[in-house]
Write a structure and sequence with these properties.
The protein has about 150 residues and is mainly beta. The protein has one domain (about 20-145): Metal Binding Protein, Guanine Nucleotide Exchange Factor, Chain A. Helices cover about 10% and strands about 40% of the residues. The strands form two sheets. Strands 6-7-8-9-4-3-10 form a seven-stranded mixed beta sheet, with no helix packed on it. The chain has a three-stranded antiparallel beta sheet with strand order 1-2-5, with no helix packed on it. A hairpin with a 6-residue loop joins β8 (about 95-100) and β9 (about 105-110).
Length: about 150
């Protein structure tokens, strides 16, 4: 079956069950759980901050994300439009998740911050964040990834 890389069919499939993934930062001060498919569709952005952090994550609606511990141990970095809220642990500096500019009503969860055992597969899609406005207009699904 051929799939359009800009149409992450597994992400929106009504037939794919969601699993509960858990994860957190390196020191353990920040812990979360997220409901998402076991087969993850990751975005790898090349914007200035994502390149330096080597961010590879998946977008979920806010209703599918729950911070379990560490709200008081998070700090936020925002730049440019200040819409994206890059949260990270004050103790170890790890960014486990953040609120993206593309989906300010959801979260990007860093795949490498998930605990082992719940991910079956990962597909990586490159996103040209260096030319964010143009890329957002051209991408067919990214703006809807945080919708229920």
């Amino acid at each position: 079956m051929d799939t359009d890389p800009q149409q992450p069919s597994s992400r929106h499939s009504e037939h794919q069950d969601l699993v509960t993934h858990t994860g957190g930062c390196h020191c353990g001060a920040v812990r979360f759980e997220v409901k998402a498919p076991a087969d993850l569709h990751l975005l790898h952005c090349n914007c200035s901050v994502c390149t330096k952090k080597q961010i590879k994550g998946f977008i979920v609606p806010a209703s599918q994300f729950r911070l379990l511990e560490g709200a008081d141990n998070l700090t936020v970095y925002a730049f440019n439009t200040k819409v994206a809220k890059h949260t990270f642990c004050k103790t170890c500096g790890v960014q486990s998740f953040y609120t993206p500019r593309s989906n300010p009503d959801g979260y990007v969860v860093m795949v490498y911050c998930l605990d082992e055992g719940t991910v079956n597969s990962m597909t990586v899609e490159l996103f040209n964040g260096k030319d964010w406005e143009k890329s957002m207009k051209e991408h067919k699904t990214i703006q809807n990834l945080s919708k229920e």
